[in-house]
Structures are given as structure tokens and as C-alpha cells.
Amino acid sequence: MLINELSKKTGLSIHTIRYYENLGMIKGLADEKVKSNNYKHYNNNTIERLEIIIEAREVGFTLAEIKKILTSWFETTESKPETLELFHAKIKEIDDKMRYFKQTKRLLEKVCEKIQNNE
Amino acid sequence: MLINELSKKTGLSIHTIRYYENLGMIKGLADEKVKSNNYKHYNNNTIERLEIIIEAREVGFTLAEIKKILTSWFETTESKPETLELFHAKIKEIDDKMRYFKQTKRLLEKVCEKIQNNE
DNA sequence: ACAAAGTATAAACTATGCTCTATGCTTTTA
DNA sequence: TAAAAGCATAGAGCATAGTTTATACTTTGT
């Protein structure tokens, strides 16, 4: 599929997709049989990768961090202990953030109560 | 307390605290009895506010959004229905993000398993 | 009393993550 | 076949959230 279709399937703008491609997070390939243009083709793996990017950026990971996640998930053949530790650290980060989430949610709920009681 | 103490108690840099003060998220007051300087004094409410800021920014709320939360929590006297709706929407956002969190955590755990099995 | 440390204000600078514009080529469509 | 739409590349511009620098005044410690 070309970039337009990819954009529609993921909900990301064409600009954003190209931005991610420039960062090396995804990769499209030009059809070698077609010499007249340089149109890049993307496959379902690209969709998977973009969905992971969307998920992980919601969590607040930077694009650099997400790139590492993608590499470890899709490309890594060898297993470095420091990579493993990195991911354990990230999991811990998520757990920490979850706590902030619960606290903030509780605060917001209290704000709602306060607003309603003032009526 | 002065800004240095506030910085130590919250873990935020003096610069960041001033940045938040410029945005109107917190407010220090100069001692009127002292004419020789313009040193601002902060109280425990400021600490509370900064702790809320720290929590909420981890959740990914923008400083503008956090400012609204603070206003509704500490300053609002009247209760506007649209404010209430805003906060309900924010709570929903948090719930949505929690889902992303769980998915991303699961992905990271799988990455860890993958790395370990490759050994 | 004087150097060091603290405070205030303003402005410049930086990093991240886009978003938009310009240019030029290719493909599709009426 | 000419106009419109799509694709690629490069670079400029923008918003957010700080961080750093410069300047100047005040307070504190020795």
C-alpha cells in the first residue's frame, strides 16, 4: 500500500508518517520493477509498528524510546542484558505512572464532587 | 518559605517554579513589611499546587489544562456546568489512557520474554 | 566590609514532536 | 492531453515545556 492508504488505516497524517520514517521508525520500499517513480510501499508490519507507536506515545514515551522498543520487538536477534534491563525499567515506569493516574483521577473526581455540591 | 526551600521541598528547579508562576499556576507574595527587597514567600498551598502539577503532568495533561484543574479545585466559587463536563471528559481521557498503558505494559513484557528466550 | 550566595526579571536558547510550504516529478481522470 | 491528485524531499515554522544566560539588586557569612 502507498502512504495515502497507510494514513487512512492508521489515522496518522501523511506528514507524521513521513516524519516517523525519517526517524527510522518505519520503512517503506520502492518497487524495484517500477523505474519511473520512487513511490514507497508499506506492508502490514508497518501498520503494526505504527499502532505500537500510537499506543506507546500515549504512555508518554519519547519517539527515541519507542524506536528502541520496536527494534527489540521486530529486529533484535541477540539478547543483550542491558536491553532487558531497559525494558524492565520501562515497565516500572509504567507502574509508577499508573499510580499518578489513579491519584489524578481521584483528584478530578473530587473536583467534580466539589463543583456539584456548590450548586 | 522562599523559592529555594520550595524548590527543595518539591524537587522542582527554581527555574521551573518561576516558569509555573509566570503562567499563573502558583503565586508567591512579597512581604509588605519588608521594603528593601521583592522576595516572594510561598506557603503550603503552593506545595499542594505543585504536587498536583507534578502528578497531572505525568498523566500527560498540558500546563493549561492543569491550570484549569487548580482553579476549579482551589479558587472556584460558582459551579459552571461546562466546567463539570470538562472534568468528566478528563476522567474519561484518563480511563482511555489506562487502556493504552495496559497494552503497552503487556507489549513490554512480551519484549522481555522474547529477549530472554533468545538467550 | 566584602565576597559569596540568594533573589528577581527578561530574554534568548533548546528539545521534542509535529505541521506546513515549496518544488518537482508521476499518475490518474475527465 | 491537460488538469487534478498523489508522491518525494527538503526546509521553514510552530507549540509546548522547559533551561540557560545576563543583569542587577539583596542578604548572609567570615
What brief labels describe this structure?
69% helix, homodimer, mainly alpha, DNA-binding
Please tally the helical runs of chain A, counting DSSP H or I stretches of 4 or more residues: 5
Q: Strand fraction band of chain A?
A: under 5%
Count the E strands of chain A: 2
Which class best fits the helix and strand makeup of chain A?
Answer: mainly alpha
Mean pLDDT of chain A: 92
Radius of gyration of chain A: 20 Å
Low-confidence stretches of chain A: none
Oligomer: homodimer
The CATH architecture name of the largest domain in chain A reads: Orthogonal Bundle
How far apart lie the N and C ends of chain A? 55 Å
Order of neighbouring strands in the sheet with most strands of chain A: 1-2
CATH topology label of the largest domain in chain A: Multidrug-efflux Transporter Regulator, Chain: A, Domain 2
The largest chain-to-chain contact, stated as pair and per-chain residue counts, equals: A-B, 41 and 41 residues
How many domains of chain A? The number is 2
Sheet with the most strands of chain A? Answer: 2 strands, antiparallel
**Quick one: CATH class of the largest domain in chain A?**
Mainly Alpha
What global shape of chain A is seen?
Answer: flat
Which H/E pattern describes the elements of chain A? HHEEHHH
The helical percent of chain A reads 55-70%
Protein name (chains A, B): DNA-binding transcriptional MerR regulator
Organism (chains A, B): Flavobacterium nitrogenifigens
Pfam family, one (chains A, B): MerR_1
InterPro entries (chains A, B): DNA-bd_dom_put_sf, MerR-type_HTH_dom, MerR_fam
